[in-house]
Amino acid sequence: MSQPTADPSLPSPSSAEPLAGRAIAVIGGATAGAEVAHRLAEAGAFVAVFEQNPRPYGKIEDGLPRWHHELRRKEYRTIDAKLSHPHVHFVPNTRIGRDIEFEDLAHRWGFHAVILANGAWRDRPLPIDGADAYIGRGLVYQNPFIVWFNHADEKDWPGERFEAVDDALVVGGGLASIDVAKVLMLETTRARLRERGIDEPLLALELKGIPKVLERHGLRFEELGLAGCTLFYRRRLEDMPLVEIPDDATPERRAKAESARRKLLEKAIEKYRFRVEPLSAPDGLLVEDGRLVGLRFRRTRIDGGRIVPTDETFDRRGSLILSSIGSIPEPIPGIAMKGELFAFADWDLGRLDAYPNVFSAGNVVTGKGNIVASRKHASHVAERAIAAFLGVGEGDRCAESDLLADTDEATRAWTDRVAGALADHPPHDPPALARLAARVQARQSASDYPGSYQTWISRVTPPDLE
């Protein structure tokens, strides 16, 4: 039997490419995965990116609300450029654990390393026994809700659909839960305006804010007849993690950051007209006729930074319960879990005892699903960027891109460390690399991938994708 010949696109050893002859699988093609793949490819490695969806944009497409349209388009272009590298081989519609066993990929395909960059897509369960029995019957989780919202205007969207309704209860705290509250307020306001014959674009309403747009039409919010949604948060307003507080912060710096947090939240409340009920933790279900119609909350207090339940409870009814208390990684068969996260032996590089050739990057390690969760900006930069992200930055929308820039820098530094570790592994000879490439190409063919990333993206991107 003749040996496979080397694919001319495969890297060959050279002093300028320290990882030539090494083969690396990256699971997940979004912000972290694309950055890792590109940097390793630049060092000469053969990189296969396995993506569970047709498009690789991850939380940029399905988690970042569509009013961030400029930031989304910028990140699409960035990811596209990185995954178009000739040494990067994109494999769409391939879920590890379903289409390929993780153990096979890590131990038998022939990769020198496997990098988990698949993010955090599973909603953390609402912490009330039996709550998940009411999913679709009064309870909705944040991730599918925002996915729907981002694709709601696509004519051929095949996914699950929801409705933004008035008088909803949102359980959460943080940027993602504010996004959920904004979706509810913007969409219910638009619906009431349409009843009056006024068609106000989403982007204009988000940019200007609800009160200013209504004023232009000679209206006040109270005239719309909306109850509005309420965000229930188990801590104080100043505890909401909108501005980072370093672990070694002085009391003065901590107080300043807490004041900035409250100010940002109050601006968002004023501009989008949702309410926040602090010091309230979900404690029980209100069920009628087999449907969740509200929640029992327990008052809390903060003692030395800890949440302390009190004896006081209260009931709140709502037309919908939206849980937005965080995202965690999806389990992958073959990888041991420790609580909600993978059982990492080395949390810095995301390494696993059972798979010494596996590394992990991004939110799959942190267990945070928000795209800006890993920011490490100085507090004054973070406040400006977060204000822009929330839409309360006095028109300075471009500043929100700073939130991703720092995350990219952290990913680059992490990738350089991994590349250094992989450089010690002996490279594949050309026939071995060709055999691995053939396996990757077979999986691409199974997904009807044409071999060209740009051709594929043009084919699978709907014309009305925002």
Secondary structure blueprint with pairings:
Layout: E1 23-27, H1 31-42, E2 46-50, H2 58-62, H3 69-83, E3 88-91, H4 102-107, E4 113-116, E5 122-123, E6 139-141, H5 142-151, E7 169-172, H6 175-195, H7 202-208, H8 210-216, E8 230-232, H9 251-272, E9 275-277, E10 280-288, E11 291-303, E12 306-317, E13 321-324, E14 327-328, E15 337-338, E16 341-342, E17 344-346, E18 351-352, E19 358-360, H10 363-366, H11 379-390, H12 401-422, H13 430-446, H14 453-460
Parallel strand pairs: 1-2, 1-4, 2-3, 4-19, 6-13, 7-8, 7-13, 8-9
Antiparallel strand pairs: 5-14, 10-11, 11-12, 15-16, 17-18
Polypeptide structure, described:
With about 475 residues, this protein is an alpha/beta fold. It folds into two domains: about 25-120 and about 330-375 and about 400-460, 3-Layer(aba) Sandwich (Rossmann fold); about 125-325, FAD/NAD(P)-binding domain (3-Layer(bba) Sandwich). Helix content is about 35%, strand content about 20%. The protein has 14 helices and 19 strands. The protein has helices at about 30-40, 60, 70-85, 100-105, 140-150, 175-195, 200-210, 210-215, 250-270, 365, 380-390, 400-420, 430-445, 455-460; strands spanning about 25, 45-50, 90, 115, 120-125, 140, 170, 230, 275, 280-290, 290-305, 305-315, 320-325, 325-330, 335-340, 340, 345, 350, 360. The strands form six sheets. It has a five-stranded parallel sheet, with helices on both faces. A five-stranded parallel sheet has the order 6-13-7-8-9. Strands 10-11-12 form a three-stranded antiparallel sheet, with no helix packed on it. Strand 17 and strand 18 form a beta hairpin. Helix 1 crosses helix 12 (about 400-420). The longest helix has 22 residues, at about 250-270. Residues about 1-10 and about 375-380 have low confidence and may be disordered.
